[in-house]
Amino acid sequence: MSAAAGWYDDQDPRYVRWWDGARWTEHVQPRPEAAPQEPETIAPAPAAEPVDRLSKREARERAAAAEAHIAQLEDLIRRHGTRDFAELDDYRARAQTEAEAARRTGADAASALVAAARAERDRILAEAGAERLRAEQEAGAVRLRAEEEAGATRRRAEAELQAVDEAVHERIEARRAIDAELAAARAELVDVTATAELQGVGLFEHDHPAESSAELASRLEALRYTIKNAVRDKRAVTATSGFTFNGSEAQGRRFVSDMSKVLLRAYNAEAENAVKATRAGNLHVAQNRLTKAAEQIARSGTMIDLRIQDGYHELRLEELQLASAHLRVLQAEKEMERERRAELREQAKASAELQAERERLDKERAHYAATLAALESKGDAEGAARMRDRIEDVDRALVEVDYRAANVRAGYVYVISNVGAFGERMVKIGMTRRLEPMDRVVELGDASVPFRFDVHALFFADDAVGVEAMLHRTFAPQRVNRINLRREFFYVTPDEVLDALKAHAVEIVEFALHPAAEEYRASRALEVPEAAAAG
User: Fold this and answer.
1) Are 268 and 201 spatial neighbours (Cβ–Cβ below 8 Å)?
2) How many Å apart are CA 380 and CA 108, to the nearest integer?
3) Cβ(64)–Cβ(115) under 8 Å?
4) Environment class of residue 65 by beta-carbon count within 10 Å: exposed (0-12), middle (13-18) or buried (19+)?
């Protein structure tokens, strides 16, 4: 049974705390002089009055107050559970005994009993507070351990869930990889099937010259794709659709289909052979060969109106054009490389000649200097003067050699022709840095042409490279080889070259308009008696 609600003594003797009938509250206030709530406290007897002067009524009142106070303490003890029941019984018995003694001994004894009970109550409350603190600490420790265990369990669960997610993701990726491989295999199967069908009509992936061309490879790939589509879509050949064989339309259709495949295979084989036989200068030969093959197939398929469709034939002719175009480019590149190497050899020869001439002049000057010293020591003034003139000539030659070696643009420009080899309306315009420019002209006519070249002009220029380039630009429309620009032949006459030199104020001392062509004219002269003798 709980004590009634009211103000009761706090652990701190200076305050009282409110009890709401079930638990202590946080409300406190200073202890009043008189008890704030019931039950009434026993007022202490005046210290001056002797104990035996208490009346029976006053002693009974004080004893009742002590018993009420004890009841309150028992209720507190019972509520906090800090004492055994036997101990509480002993305490209550002692308190009752003390109350009886207080009634007998008077007000002083009752006051002492109340003070002792109050002190005991404070001790019990302190123990109860300590027990409650320990209980709260233990509860906190238990709650902390529970939270830690719960966190560890949650982390384990999350790790297991992540592992499951990763396993599922790996399975999904593996499935996707398998699906991709399956799709690739199916696509490859389709490609293999299509390739087999194309090969059945003679359309193979043969080597093509334009495959190695950076410029033509993409065009060739697109063209081959178009050719394959034409074969797949049955647009390569055309034939009759109402043919019957032994009175059966089904057998007639099968016969037309088989004949179409056979003749298309023959045509594609001929197209492949034509590509392989194509050269830089025989495109028309290869195209005529393929056209004749198409005409032969049309004659062979007259009974069923079978022929190669014009559109498909044009595609295969374009394939030949790509092959020929690439081969022409390769041939031009080879020619240009050959000309470049020849030019490098020419430059090397010119440098070697200049170096050899420099060494010869150095030796000659040293010889003249030694001779001059000997003549001067003998007192031969006339001989010494001649040696000085020779040394000056050598010095001028050395200056010219050094100038030619340092100025790579300086050299000799030549205009030559070969009537016996090229006719009267063709000249070659070039330049050389050789000390003896005629050596270069002789080399040009050694073995490449049946007759030697005739020189129309051969003159030195400080900017021979510029003069040569000017003439090449002037006669660019008349250039014979417009692919290999190192082939310096032009469809012009010597007169036209002379006019161009004059128009650009090029200094020239000699220019021969008419070639001698001695070997050619002598050969022609010998032809007349031989013809007469044969007649």
Assistant:
1) yes
2) 171
3) no
4) buried
pLDDT of residue 239 exceeding 50, the answer is yes
Cα distance between residue 479 and residue 473, in whole Å: 10
Phi, psi dihedral angles at 339 (to 5 degrees): -65, -40
Angle between helical axes of 107-200 and 56-80 (0-180°, round to 10) = 20
DSSP state of 240: -
**Residue 79 has what pLDDT?**
64
The structure tokens listed for 211 are 């495959």
Model pLDDT for residues 273-287, shown as the tens digit of each residue: 888 777 766 788 888
For residue 108, what are its two tokens? 């002083």
More confident residue, 55 or 412: 412
CA 379 to chain centre: 86
Q: By the 8 A CB rule, do 263 and 297 touch?
A: yes
Q: Where are the alpha helices (DSSP H) in 33-106?
A: 56-80, 85-105
- Nearest 5°: the CA angle 355, 356, 359 is 90
- Backbone φ and ψ of 258, nearest 5°: -65, -45
Distances (CA, A) of 11 to 29, 65, 95, 127: 12, 20, 20, 11
Task: Indicate the average pLDDT of the chain.
Answer: 78
Which residue shows structure tokens 């009420």?
Answer: 68
Count of other CB atoms within 10 angstroms of residue 453: 22
Instruction: Name the band, by pLDDT with cuts 50, 70 and 90, for residue 476.
Output: very high
Phi/psi zone of residue 517: left (φ > 0), alpha (ψ -120 to 50 degrees), beta? left
For residue 173, pLDDT over 80 is answered with yes
pLDDT score of 399 = 82
* Domain ranges across the chain: 39-146, 213-333, 408-535
The yes-or-no verdict on residue 166 having pLDDT over 60 is: yes
Please state, for a pLDDT cut of 70, what percent of the chain lies above it: 78
Distances from the Cα of 115 to the Cα of 41, 44, 139, 186, 264, angstroms: 12, 11, 36, 104, 131
The answer to whether residue 328 scores a pLDDT higher than 90 is: no
Note the pLDDT tens digit of each residue in 107-132.
565 566 677 778 888 888 888 888 88
Q: Which of 70-74, 182-186, 309-313 ranks highest by mean pLDDT? A: 309-313
Where does residue 101 rank: exposed (0-12), middle (13-18), buried (19+ CB within 10 A)?
A: middle
Within 8 A by CB and 6+ apart from 160, the residues are none
Asked if 428 and 453 touch (Cβ cutoff 8 Å), the reply is: yes
The dihedrals phi and psi of 191, each to the nearest 5 degrees, come to: -60, -40
